[in-house]
Amino acid sequence: MSAEPAQDLLIGVDVGTYSSKGVLTTLDGQIVAQHVVPHGISVPRHGHVEQDADAVWWADVVTILLELLREPGTAERVAGVACSAIGPTLLPLNAGGRPLRPGILYGVDTRAQAQIDALNAELGEAAILAHSDMALTSQATGPKIRWLREQEPEVWAQARTLTSAGSYLVFRLTGEHVIDHHTGAHFMPLYDPRTRTWTDRFAASVLGDRGLEVLPRLAWSDERAGQVTAAAAAETGLRPGTPVAVGTVDALAEGLSVGAARPGDLMVMYGSSTFFILTQERPTPDPRVWSVGGAFAGQVNLAAGMSTTGSLTRWIVDEFAREQDTAAAYDELFTQAAALPPGADGLLMLPYFSGERTPVNDPRARGVVAGLTLSHTRAHLFRAALEGVGFGIRHNLDALRDLGADVRRVVAVGGGTKGGTWLQIVSDITGQVQELPRVTVGASYGDAFLAGLAAGALTRDDLDRWVQPGPPVTPDAATRAEYDRLYGLYRALYPATREIVHAL
Predict the structure, then answer these.
(1) Cα-to-chain-centroid distance, residue 402
(2) What protein family is recorded (predicted)?
(3) DSSP alpha helices (H): ranges in 239-374?
(4) Using CA atoms, how far apart are residues 11 and 441, in angstroms rounded to an integer?
(5) ω before 363 within 30° of 0 (cis)?
(6) Is the separation of the CB atoms in 32 and 26 below 8 Å?
(7) Global pTM?
(8) Which of 50, 54, 163, 434 has the smallest number of CB atoms closer than 10 Å to its CB?
(9) Helix 421-430 vs helix 480-503: crossing angle, to nearest 10
(10) What digits encode the pLDDT tens for the residues 94-141?
């Protein structure tokens, strides 16, 4: 009789805005295999940003798992699996757990501004801030739930569960409706950060006559949500009964992937948008940012996010270098941008091409390019975009410090860290040292760690073994005076153009 195979592997899968990625690791974090599946977003009208839950989210997960488990005997060795995804999103499900419409994305989707205004008027902005530890913005899911109730009554009538992207993946794997506290906090004002429970205090203004039973069960990211069902195993190749972690949003998983999990650690994620997560010992509520639960029981995160960063550089490549291979165009533009002086020869950009989240919190904000002349090239535009994002990152760091948050260490992660040019520009603008771990696989690597915790194969102390530091990016003091001057102009540009942009 042959012995059972050792369960010495872990799987993490992350569904991002423009691609999904999976990783197969050993219990000590060594990468065995990876797989990436690209996808797109749907913008049916301005301000509405959506994705199909089955055709994109679940289909990507299935494709990735089948690829990672391709070698015979691999599934039997997997100790646990965890998923993360874009969030917070809103996905209504019918009584059978099937999606009733495409998922409504996180803060880049700005459709619910009228509902934000209505909730603020009905409940009071001060009352909402005191209750939720943050103000209503386009990142909040509660106003989007109200939008769904008001604008799509036929969908609302059939909805029996209101979930998010990562929670839907957990449901497809386990049959369990469960959501992590980090994501749940964004379902404000339905979440009470003091009791860590759903609350009906303001529920009528969001859910109408529905009760809190339409919301998934709350749990911490490293807890076990359930186990892989026979039906999910048949689709994915996973072993039935494999433990599945609760998981979380992509940004929090990305923070874990680079070891940003202790108080004072700030993760800056350079993706299609830029996201910030600061691990704290106690909350510091402020309407400019988001105060949410962390990955582990009792943890608090201060989160912030810019709407259009990597997607802005992609827009420039798509529109101004469409005749080139995308990868080659990026290489050329980064090289050319690195050769230009700070300030891109008099060009300044507000990167608010999809509105802006923190600390501006203006869904009606738009991109502004100031100082254009006939001598400027696409490389100047690209450099101005990199610097515009850098100024936006400095704006967010200033906001965190203004409210008394303790930032002790900055760890960078994400696709925008490749090559170093963008990181150097940001360090020069902010004056901030940025740490860059040797292995920067992304959120899926953090998911694999969560899978190990949920399966009982790892402890939190093992994170130090998984994450090895690389060389830091240090600011160039020679650029400081010029960037300080330009930052002042950047901060003045938004209020100077806001009313014109809103009118447009």
Answers:
(1) 23
(2) Belongs to the FGGY kinase family.
(3) 250-257, 310-320, 326-338
(4) 13
(5) no
(6) yes
(7) 0.87
(8) 54
(9) 90
(10) 999 999 999 999 998 999 999 999 999 999 999 999 999 999 999 999
